[in-house]
Amino acid sequence: MKENGKTKSARDTFTGSFGYVMATAASAVGLGNIWRFPYLAAKYGGGIFLIIYLVLVVTFGHAMLMSETALGRMTRKSAVGAFQSFGSNLPLRFGGWINAIVPMLIAPYYCFIGGWIVKYLYEYLAGNTASLAENNYFTSFITTFSSTEICFIVFTALTFLIVLMGVGNGVEKASKILMPLLVLLAIVIAVYSMTRPGAMEGVRYFFIPNFRKLSLMTLVAAMGQMFFSLSIAMGILYTYGSYLKKDGDIVKTSRLVETFDSGVSILAGLMIIPAIFAFLGGSEENIRSGPSLMFITIPKILESMGLGQIPGIIFFFMVLFAALTSSISLMESGVSTFMDQAGWSRSRSCVVMGIIMLLLGTACALGYDAWSSVQPLGMSILDFFDFLTNSIMMPLAALFTCVLIIKYAGIRSVVEEIRISSPFKGEKTYIVTIKYLAPIILIIILISSVAATFG
Ligand code: PHE
Fold first, then answer.
1. ipTM of predicted assembly, 2 dp
2. Which residue among 29, 228, 258 has the greatest number of ligand 1 atoms within 8 angstroms of its CB, and so is best to mutate?
3. What is the CATH number of the domain that holds 217?
4. Are 145 and 369 contacting, i.e. CB atoms less than 8 angstroms apart?
């Protein structure tokens, strides 16, 4: 979010790699790690999902993180501009725009879920610890449009104000303190959760891969999660890279971000998955409970600690913060696209993004209540946006980044860009990944997503 309030011509740079790592990590760590990762890991087979996810992160994810950052730094432009630096034919225009549109579609439903965090924080502040831990609390909340909508609006308004006032830097400074605290608290909760009676079964489920649960859908879900969590295939890292100085070590900073992000996801898994077994019972239905999982398990863990409302307040406050640093990065990405491409002012771009977020987020809220019969492709509206972006648009966006590198920018010049600041040892692996592995995997993912949808 270094572009806040700055002009396009005098492009700001991060003061050092540290600033870049912090901004990228703040964008990366959010609801994706704490809310999305655990429910996908539980749903798609536990250990087998974890292993596939981690392998994807260190191979493919690493290559994509470096590529997007290097392309951003090379062109000094955000996604649309970066693609068009190499020409303005159809594939280049499409590639740039698909990268730019994805965050515009994620921001609304991200804020909708951010609203759930607002609700839980509010209820803990009000001292309703016991009722939050009741079995049907979440379901009755989510199916009441007026409640979800108010919380969604509060979260969106917070995001909107921060982006509009361009105070993202202040938020990032605060996140330097709050992020480590969140990690610490997560460790405490994870240890507590893992030591409850019956929880070991959950730990085993999460760590020991069961290869019989391996399916193409596991791969699709793990890949989508990797994009979402690392904030790749959505233009964000082009923008951040465009602010990175030439001496910022792209290889090392990417590794740091991946390690931190995956570490938080694993911690979240360890808080939540053992708790399914300890508090709910490891039935198929509980394991596969989907987006509601965190909101059902965490209150039960916190309630059983017997410390009243305090742990809940601290936990949801920190999660709210982590979610906000991500939602401002999502919204900022849309805003900067409007500013750069349409030449609009910051406030006008914010208003347009705000309207998009309000409309689509409200549709998600209605999707659980009055519009519950509206089921695009047989999914709820929220799941539909999530599927559309993570399983279809992001693989496409990533594929076009590969095409950009191979066909237009030239893989050599991207390697040289990375080399400026790092002794790039994994060069051969990188080339093979971008040239062959990534496109093949992406095409398989795309075909299977489409087949799963229409088949
Ligand atoms: N990576 C963030 C998360 O895990 C979500 C996000 C995606 C944020 C894209 C910014 C940009 O929650």
1. 0.96
2. 228
3. 1.10.4160
4. yes
